[in-house]
Amino acid sequence: MNIFEAFTLIPGLFDGDEYTTLMSQIKEDAQRQGLMLDSPDELYKWFTTQVMRNLHVVFTMNPSGEGLRERASTSPALFNRCVLNWFGDWTDSALYQVGMELTNTLDMDRSDYQAPLTLPVVCDLLPSPALYRHAVINTFVLVHNSVRKLNESETKRGHRIMALTPRHFLDFIKHYINLFHEKRRDLEEEKLHLNIGLNKIRETEEQVLELQKSLTLKSRELEAKKAAANAKLKEMLSDQQRAEKEKLASEQLQKELAESLIEIEKKRTEVQKDLAQVEPAVDEAKQAVKGIRKSQLVEVRSMASPPQPVRLALESICLLLGENVSTDWKAIRGVMVKDDFMPRILNFDTDSISPETLRMMEKYIRNPDWDFEKVNRASSACGPMIKWMKAQLLYSDMLRKVEPLRNELERLEKDAKIKTTKGEDLKKTIAKLEQSIAAYKEEYAQLIGQAEAIKADLATVKEKVGRSTQLLKSLGSERDRWNGSCDGFSQQMDSLIGDALLSAAFLAYSGYYDQQLRDLLFHRWTAFVEQAEIKHRLDLARVEYLSSVDERLEWNKNGLPVDELCAENAIMLHRFNRYPLIIDPSGQAISYLMKQFAGKNISKTSFLDDSFRKNLESALRFGNSLLVQDVESYDPILNPVLNREVKRTGGRILIRLGDQDIDLSPSFQIFLITRDASVEFSPDVCSRVTFVNFTVTRASLEMQCLNQVLRSERPDVDEKRNDLLKLQGEFAVRLRHLEKALLTALNESKGKILDDDSVISTLEKLKNEAAEVGRKAAETDKVMAEVSCSGDLITCSYELANNSFQLIKSS
Asked: Which of 14, 148, 200, 667 has its CA 20 to 30 A from that of 513?
């Protein structure tokens, strides 16, 4: 490049067929422009002139002071053939403008904010009065400058420093934006979930009250149904008793009726037997009367003075027919003239003969002329009438004889009729009673069914009330804690900007420094936030704010030492924007990373390894994690990877590695690591990476010494202690998961909780498990305290070791 800069050509760059092709192309281009260039030297000279005129090369360097002098001596063309443009650090105004531009989409305004008079102003761009957003960006610049001032102080003390570049400020802002969105989203989601959970609990409390009211109503309804059922049962039993009585009466009546019918039949047989003796004579007389011709009757009526037998016959028959004519022949003839005279005789009812008529008939019967032979000789029409009257009188006499029997028969028939009617009435009454009893049975069955249903509902409601009451009682602590969390959400949202600012500054700047300087920086940043009256948590714990219990437990399981510095370093290894460069004198970070990223096919390599480039290409292509050791021998081939200089072509993500483009998998990760704590990296490297310093601190050394001494002197205590530490972490994680599961179950429940037995069962199961885990955690804390007492016996041992290390380190 020095030759190219000085002479605008590189000897031997083109040769053979490539040179011949180039000359042909140059000649064609010169001819198109109307130039007459024939010799190869003229053509090549014209070509180099065009290159010098049109080709622009920009070199960028960020060397330290010594590096700059070395490059100036070895590459003089950089200074006598190039235009030198020196870009120093960004001014405060530039930092402020960049911060405003990159955060302009964030909701960082507060209408009630009034900038304090003591607000330190970093540049003239800060308006007056400053808005909340302006005060925040102003604090960004103050934070960045505070690190520069710390570097200056450390340089004066002869300590190594991390070169501070604008990339650190950009990384700071990027961390801030990510944390702002993440924490705001988490707060909003948690608030939503907590509110839904609390609303579900409140709804459940209201529903329990309603259920308790319904218990009273259902109890009353059950008592009413029981009373109605008992009333129906009494009515049904009363009707059954009455029906039984009526049935007995009916059976007795039927028995009596049957006996009466037998007696009636017997009496009727006797009457019919007696009457049957005279009935032939009556029938014979009727037939004889029927044989009387009309002419014969006319003949009798035409008699002006009928014979005595004829007169007696007609007088007696008129008397029998009930005609009051006495012996008046004219009146008798009047009766005979009537059309119904013969039908009355033929249809005569013997029962109509009264005793008076029989008495009056005595005089005719005793008269010798009232004889069939005599009358028949006198008139053939009156003879059959005498015969008919004698038969009627004979039949009447027989009727008088059987009158008692007939009366008895009539009485029996009347009594039988009454009993039959009464029997029918009893049957109707019994049928009606049976129908009523059937209806009562059906109503009683319905009432009993309804009572049983109410009883079952009552039992279900009682069980549900009992379970829900117990559930609400067990959820009381969660409800109080969630209410407290909801009350604190507005405060957390107010402090979000300040908390994210401090946490983002920690992630961007603190990794290079030891625990003491980290705390010092954080204290200064907190002072800047307070001076600007930016709300923040007064007790902001970096580890708890930037990691979860689950993550910390996983880190510890994978061999991360249990101390604050290592936890902070693990957070940086988890949240980095720029790939990490780890300072790890003790090698504990390597062990931790190999376990932590074992699932991502992590592999180790070194800048000193001949297969370094091959390993790098493989990790880039397949998305594996790569741990590169001996980073003090840094190879600039890694610059495009650290800068994430990618290009997208046809759906592929490519990155330039040396002279070729390599496919880049999104899951690729790289960790640079050195065990040399004294190495000071160039500003170029510092700008591309996130430093993570695992240099042993006093606290971590004490913990490691304690572990070693316990493992050697009291292996039983050490094993028990490790098991308990593991259990404590697992219990804390499990309790957190169970609380989340409780909230999830409440949030995902459809409708009312008490209407879904599966939700109640899930909540009960989760709460019972949480109670059991809490109890075990309490027991673990108690045992851990006992183990700690055992550890105090050997405290002097690791304190001596720690003091010895610090003495050697300072020397």
From this structure: 667
| Angstrom distance (rounded) from CA 253 to CA 250 | 5
SS3 call for 43? helix
| Greater pLDDT, 55 or 502 | 502
Q: What is the three-state SS of 684-745?
A: HHHCCCEEEECCCCHHHHHHHHHHHHHHHHCHHHHHHHHHHHHHHHHHHHHHHHHHHHHHHH
Mean pLDDT in residue range 97-125: 92
What is the CB neighbour count within 10 angstroms for residue 713?
12
CATH of domain 560-695: 3.40.50.300
**Close Cβ partners of 465 (under 8 Å, ≥ 6 residues apart):** 208, 211, 212, 215
- What is the mean pLDDT of the segment spanning 719-732? 60
Strand partners, 663: 654
CB atoms within 10 A of CB 213: 10
**CATH class belonging to 276-417:** mainly alpha
pLDDT above 60: residue 246: yes
Instruction: Spell out the domain ranges in the chain.
Output: 1-81, 185-274+446-485, 276-417, 560-695, 731-810
Cβ-contact 507, 691 below 8 angstroms: no
- Give the pLDDT band (50/70/90) at residue 578: very high
For residues 736 and 481, is the Cβ–Cβ distance under 8 A?
A: no
What the block records as the tokens of 179 is: 């944390």
Other CB atoms within a 10 A radius of the CB of residue 296 amount to 16
- Express as a percent the part of the chain with pLDDT over 90: 26
The SS3 of residue 548 is: coil
Question: Using the 8-state DSSP alphabet, how is residue 627 labeled?
Answer: E
Strands 652-657, 646-649: pairing kind: antiparallel
CA dihedral 797, 798, 800, 804 (to 10 degrees): 140
3-state class (DSSP) for residue 672: strand
CATH code assigned to 185-274+446-485: 1.10.287.2610
What is residue 776's predicted lDDT score, i.e. its pLDDT?
Answer: 60
353/551: higher pLDDT: 551
Q: Which two tokens stand for residue 599?
A: 């699932």
Render pLDDT for 588-638 as a digit per residue (tens, 0 to 9): 899 999 999 998 889 999 999 989 999 999 999 999 999 999 999 888 899
Answer yes or no: are the C-beta atoms of 177 and 108 closer than 8 Å.
no
List C-alpha distances in Å: 190 to 185, 482, 736, 750: 8, 10, 13, 19
Collapsing DSSP to helix, strand or coil, 580 comes out as strand
Candidates 656, 657, 655, 690; CA nearest to 672 is 690
pTM: 0.67
- CATH topology (fold) of 1-81: Rossmann fold (3.40.50)
Q: What is the pLDDT of residue 501?
A: 97
Between strands 669-674 and 625-629, the pairing is parallel
**Single-letter amino acid code for the residue at 699:** A
Question: Fold identical between 276-417 and 560-695?
Answer: no
Provide the β-strand partners of residue 606.
629
